[in-house]
Amino acid sequence: MRRLRRAQQRHARQNRRFRRRAVAAGTAAVISLATGATLQKAFAGMNSDPHQLPVSRDADTDLLANAEELAIGYQPSRPDQNQNQIPDGVELARQCPAAVRELPIFVYGSPIPPPGETYKMEHALDGLEQCHICGHWIHMGGWEIINPKLHLHYPEPNDPLNGTFLPDLALHYMEHGSFDCYGDIHRGRVDIARLLRVLELRFPYDLDDHQLPVAGDDLDGDLLTDNEELEAGYNLYDPDQDDDLVPDGIELAKQSGEAIDALPVYDPHSGEPEPTDTYKVNWFQKGLEHCHICGTTRNMGYWEVVNPKLGLSIDVPDILCHYMEHGSLSYSGDVHGKGRIDVPLLVKILEMPRRSGDLGTIYLPGDSNRDCQLNFADIAELADKWLGSSNPSEG
Q: What is the per-residue pLDDT across 58-81, written as a single tens digit (0 to 9) for each?
């Protein structure tokens, strides 16, 4: 018992010393920022979870190093690309354990062949290690992740954190929003670019079962087919052409749904003159349609969306409006069945982009903060980034 108490006291002293060093390091990192982030911005980027330690060479203080952001296609000068008030590194880190949990498990030596999809293999070890931040005891083993389609696995043999498996301690830290981990055995940082590639994960958003796969070639995997992107004038090689970390198809679906919802309703039997701007006609029916994904009921009718200037119209089932709210331009219900809207025609009728920030918005040179206005706010944004560097060798 005395030995156990002495060991617990020793661990407590080590944790206190580690926390003091972490706080000192965080303070020094904020004070010495010379990469373009102001002190106000740096403190705003800090999170209350002590697992989220500062990262060196992190211009926007989003807990992703500049070189890491360049490697995974993020913007090193934008700490919150999807503007949801969560630093990009924190949000992305939290998504990884969720993705790992969903993977099927393959047991080495099993007579059942491994899955054809990405899977994981457990490396179970007889022992625990303690998190130096919260003191929790974590299994000292971890998981090897195999992607047979890409012929890749995580980790690679020379990984400094562990060349055999992704430690459970690292998953513990990622759940808290950090790609760093510090314990009795494992100390270091996850190879972010490799892990995301193996998991085929880039966007930090919650997957929604309503986002149905598209029928047709989708080169960039953004839930818009190549033909749809070509006809609508989007980039079929870039899944996130406005760099806000939301796939283009999901973004377009939600923005189109909001545009339709905001249209004025016109009754062609009212005797009133037809509007000159785009409007919608209510052709609802006395009945309900059930969503095949969540069971939500919507009217079994549809909206007719009309653009009188172009002389074009399109029918939008009310069940599709439900799917667009969830980021899908396809739908599945018990009345209309499975289908997909004519995306290029819808974009043309709605004259997308309708608002600044909608997919396809063209920003003027000098519009640093992308608010579609040239003013002093852009000068402040430019000044904030002035000392930054985009040189990958300085990552």
A: 999 999 999 999 999 898 988 998
Residue type, 373: Q
Residues 6+ apart with CB under 8 A from 39: 30, 31, 33
Q: Are 267 and 338 in contact (CB under 8 A)?
A: no
Determine, yes or no, domain membership for 140: yes
48 assigned to some structural domain: no
Domain that holds residue 171: 96-199
Shared domain for 343 and 230, answered yes or no, is: yes
**Whole-number Å distance between alpha carbons of 324 and 328:** 5
Q: Is residue 256 part of a domain?
A: yes
Q: What is the pTM of this model?
A: 0.67
- The 8 Å CB, 24+ separation contacts for 298-303 are 298/322, 298/333, 300/335, 300/336, 303/260
Helices (H) and strands (E) in the chain, counts: 11, 15
Quick one: which H or E segment has residue 227? Answer: helix 226-232
Check whether 173 has a pLDDT greater than 80.
yes
pLDDT exceeds 70 at position 393? no
Mean pLDDT of 112-128: 95
> 297 vs 208, 257, 328, 347, CA distance in Å?
18, 17, 17, 26
At 326, is the pLDDT very low, low, confident or very high (cuts 50, 70, 90)? very high
CA pseudo-torsion sign 25, 29, 30, 31: positive
Mean pLDDT of 101-126: 93
Domain count, the chain: 2
Structure-token match 């997909």, residue found: 340
Residue predicted with more confidence, 38 or 206:
206
Q: Is residue 372 part of a domain?
A: no
